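Progress note, sequence design subtask.
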């Protein structure tokens, strides 16, 4: 099955700063992929590369079987809603739909108008007068009515209140179920990702910390609590993601596909938020170590 996004050693450099380095990943089609990481991790850079808004400095990226931004046919395959939920403040809701129809050969006008009616948006209302949630819904409507194979959403609900976020995400899930498109959704809010996503990418310090299907990731990560011990004594197939110690106790998050047989450990499951935070902390620490090493070498 062809990946909806495939990156190999992908990198993007702005002057002297690398915003993304050695990014290798593959996203299968039909998934809602959550993209998470701290500010400056490279999330928006990756999404702009996927949408064809940027070109790579190193490596390659393929989206929906082609090079992003390579021509009208390729552009038609990808819908992109940028971080500021872009709309034209001076245009009405209807103007946005007419513009979408003119710019997109696969435009589904019936879908767009059904959504606008269901959402209770006034077609004659200028977009600049809409609430934040309404603007996000209008931008999402335009992205969906384009009928893309892949819809890319960069922090589309970051500025919304919890109720508005829930409504936007619920509408997104209904659209995914109805039209079978693939989605990449960037967000700082792990609870939102947990509600709608089945695939995950964690970016930290401009690199991929972990990627995979969420159910599989949660099934192969565990929290271990037991008497204080040196993590170097663990079996080779138990990979430590995070570790904390008190005078008498050690708490670990580990990755393993094998059963945990040591009776000294109390084993429990790991939630998505704890998993994400563990990898963010691990990768951030490793990144700091790499930077310190480079400073010494210079």
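Output:
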């Amino acid at each position: 099955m062809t990946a909806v996004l495939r990156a190999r050693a992908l990198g993007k450099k702005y002057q002297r700063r690398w915003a993304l380095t050695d990014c290798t990943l593959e996203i299968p089609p039909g998934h809602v992929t959550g993209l998470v990481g701290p500010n400056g991790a490279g999330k928006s850079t990756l999404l702009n590369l996927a949408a064809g808004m940027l070109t790579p400095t190193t490596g390659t990226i393929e989206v929906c079987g082609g090079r992003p931004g390579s021509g009208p046919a390729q552009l038609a395959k990808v819908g992109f809603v940028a971080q500021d939920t872009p709309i034209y403040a001076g245009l009405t809701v209807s103007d946005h739909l007419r513009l979408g129809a003119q710019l997109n050969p696969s435009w589904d006008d019936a879908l767009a108008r059904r959504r606008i009616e269901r959402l209770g948006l006034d077609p004659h209302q200028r977009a600049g007068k809409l609430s934040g949630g309404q603007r996000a819904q209008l931008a999402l409507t335009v992205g969906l009515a384009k009928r893309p194979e892949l819809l890319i959403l960069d922090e589309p609900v970051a500025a919304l209140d919890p109720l508005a976020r829930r409504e936007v995400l619920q509408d997104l899930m209904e659209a995914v179920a109805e039209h079978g498109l693939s989605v990449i959704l960037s967000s700082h809010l792990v609870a939102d990702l947990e509600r709608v996503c089945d695939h995950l990418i964690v970016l930290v310090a401009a690199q991929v910390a972990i990627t995979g299907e969420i159910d599989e990731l949660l099934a192969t990560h565990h929290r271990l609590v037991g008497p204080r011990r040196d993590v170097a004594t663990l079996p080779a197939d138990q990979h430590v993601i995070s570790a904390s110690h008190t005078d008498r106790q050690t708490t670990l998050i580990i990755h393993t596909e094998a059963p945990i047989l040591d009776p000294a450990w109390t084993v429990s499951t790991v939630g998505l938020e704890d998993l994400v935070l563990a990898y963010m902390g691990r990768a951030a620490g490793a990144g700091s170590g790499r930077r310190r090493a480079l400073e010494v070498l210079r």
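The chain is about 35% helix and 30% strand. Work on this subtask will continue into the next period as scheduled.
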